[in-house]
Design goal:
The chain contains 3 helices and 8 strands, in the order αββββααββββ. The two termini are 90 Å apart. Helices cover 40% and strands 22% of the residues. The protein is elongated. The protein has a domain of 76 residues: Helix Hairpins (Orthogonal Bundle). The chain has a 4-stranded antiparallel beta sheet with strand order 1-8-6-3, with no helix packed on it. Strands 5-4-2-7 form a 4-stranded antiparallel beta sheet, with no helix packed on it. Helix 2 packs antiparallel against helix 3.
Length: 233
C-alpha cells in the first residue's frame, strides 16, 4: 500500500507545481524597455500683457490757442506732414508783423551806426577826432549791433510760433485717439503735454508683458513666444 502512496504524492506535487507555474506565467507583468535618448525639456512661462504699436506719438500743441479746425477723426490714416489741426493764428500773425517792423528799424539804425563808426575811425586816423569821440561811436555801434541780434532772434521766435499753430503729423500712421474738438483750447504747455490726439504706426506691433520676478530667470533673449489675444478667437 505504501508503494502506491508515494507515486500518488509525487504526481500531486508535480501537478501543483505545474499549475502554479502556469498561473504565474499568465499573471506576469509585461515590462517594456527602450534606449536612453537625449531630449529637450520645454519650460513655459505665462504672463499677461498688452499689444501696442512700436511707434506711437502723442500730438500736442507747442503754442496756446483755440482749435479752429480739426481735420481728422478716429481711425483715419494719415501721412507724414499732413495737417491734422489748425489753431487760431491771428495774434501770432500780428506778433510776426510787429517783430518784422522792429527788426527793419533796428537794421536801418545798425547800418547808420556802422557808417558813423567808419567815418569816425577815418577822422581819428587823420587826427581830426578825439579818442573819446571814437570810443563813443564804437559804443553806439556795438549797442545797436546787440539790439539787431535781439530783434532778429525775436523775429525768428515769432515766425516759429506762427508755424506751430498748424499741427502736422510727424509720421505715417493711423489716428487712434482724438481727445479735443474744434472750439476747445490747446494749452501749449512745455511742462505738461496737453494731448490733442494720438497717432500710431499700426504696421509694427509689440507686446509689453509683466513677467513675475520668480519667472524672470527662466526667460532669455530670443526665446520663442506664443501670443493669445482675447479679442481674436
Amino acid at each position: 500500500m505504501k508503494k502506491w502512496i508515494i507515486p500518488i504524492v509525487v504526481i500531486v506535487i508535480a501537478a501543483i507545481v505545474y499549475f502554479n507555474l502556469k498561473m504565474n506565467k499568465e499573471q506576469a507583468v509585461e515590462v517594456q524597455t527602450d534606449v536612453v535618448k537625449r531630449h529637450t525639456v520645454e519650460e513655459k512661462v505665462s504672463a499677461s500683457g498688452r499689444v501696442k504699436p512700436v511707434t506711437q506719438v502723442d500730438i500736442s500743441a507747442n503754442v496756446a490757442g483755440e482749435i479752429i479746425e480739426m481735420n481728422v477723426k478716429d481711425g483715419q490714416n494719415v501721412h507724414k506732414g499732413q495737417v491734422l489741426a489748425q489753431l487760431d493764428k491771428v495774434r501770432y500773425e500780428a506778433a510776426v508783423v510787429s517783430a518784422r517792423a522792429v527788426y527793419s528799424s533796428t537794421k536801418v539804425a545798425f547800418e547808420k551806426a556802422k557808417k558813423d563808426l567808419k567815418r569816425a575811425q577815418a577822422l581819428y586816423e587823420s587826427g581830426n577826432l578825439s579818442q573819446a569821440d571814437l570810443d563813443q561811436a564804437l559804443a553806439e555801434y556795438e549797442n545797436i549791433q546787440s539790439n539787431l541780434a535781439q530783434a532778429e532772434s525775436g523775429l525768428k521766435q515769432a515766425e516759429d510760433n506762427l508755424s506751430k499753430t498748424t499741427i502736422i503729423s510727424p509720421i505715417d500712421g493711423t489716428i487712434i485717439q482724438v481727445r479735443k474738438e474744434a472750439g476747445e483750447i490747446a494749452l501749449g504747455s512745455q511742462f505738461q503735454a496737453d494731448i490733442i490726439m494720438v497717432v500710431a504706426d499700426l504696421s509694427k506691433m509689440e507686446v509689453e508683458v509683466d513677467v513675475n520676478e520668480n519667472d524672470v530667470v527662466r526667460v532669455s533673449l530670443n526665446d520663442p513666444v506664443e501670443i493669445d489675444i482675447d479679442a481674436i478667437p
